[in-house]
């Protein structure tokens, strides 16, 4: 399509490792796609191949009708002809140049007057108008981020690639700047692909998400689609679904399935794409409600009796593991945990709505 970047390639390394990518990024309208996955999964390699910094051994990369790489035809477009902006983890600003000079660096072939006007416009766009004469060491973390973005966007790229753009910052600054970065990317007005291994960053920054695990892109979709309906068990664990357990379908009817996980029977909404009785159940910790004592009746389909086997305090919340015939993780506030008088060894009821139980065909991902 003329308004998308399509990439299907494989790059192999002497160690035997390989990264396989199958991505389609919308280019017609500004949007932010997050390339999400654990450290070492191949995220940066995908970015470098798109930018032309690394060359795959097989496949094809095309931006609309323009082919950037085609192994079969021997096509390889160098980085400078792809019109891509690249923001590195450490921002890579030249320390001996002023911020204005850094922004002008990618405009070397422009006439001097146009170069100056463009640099000033970018400084103003990112609220750096009065800081152009400073050196990078004189700027805060947030200012450095904006300066690096200004430099990357000054030449007018059609796509912006960002490699862990918040990882160089300390935790408090990183948390503070997530929202700022999202606003800056929207303000830039061009499609962006952001690499991160942080789920909170993915949610804060992205419109769409692509999950890469062990060198393979496993799922793409909107952020909400991927987080709420992971394609397989490996994706579920990667995006932070705390409970992933094997189960077997027992009954179906009225759009619902009854499954057995360990010794527990659970009702879930039928996803309509199961080809066999073996599945994984996926439940987010925040979708589990704990009640003291034995199960009571209520509108929720699932009231599971269990015993608390672990309680891990994490600041204002407590991560509670309940043995319901399978390990079920719940997340409750510290206040609720204390008010209910919960403790390890205590019998509790775990309440989960059928709509909160996501079923994945077993055999996809973990076994």
* Strand line-up in the sheet with most strands: 7-8-9-3-10-11
Tally of distinct domains: 2
**Rg calculated over all Cα atoms:** 24 Å
General form: globular
- Structural class based on helices, strands and sheet pairing: alpha+beta
Q: What is the ordering of alpha helices and beta strands? A: EEEHEEEEHHHEHEHEEHHEEEEEEEEHEE
Mean pLDDT over all positions:
88
CATH fold group of the largest domain = Rossmann fold
Unreliable residue stretches: none
Instruction: Kindly state the percentage of residues in helix.
Output: 10-25%
The first-level CATH class of the largest domain is given as Alpha Beta
CATH H-level superfamily of the largest domain: P-loop containing nucleotide triphosphate hydrolases
Characterize the main sheet: 6 strands, mixed
Number of helical elements: 9
Overall number of strands: 21
SS strand fraction: 35-45%
Using the 3D structure, state the CATH architecture of the largest domain.
Answer: 3-Layer(aba) Sandwich
Summarize the structure.
It is built from nine helices and 21 strands. The chain has 367 residues and is an alpha+beta fold.
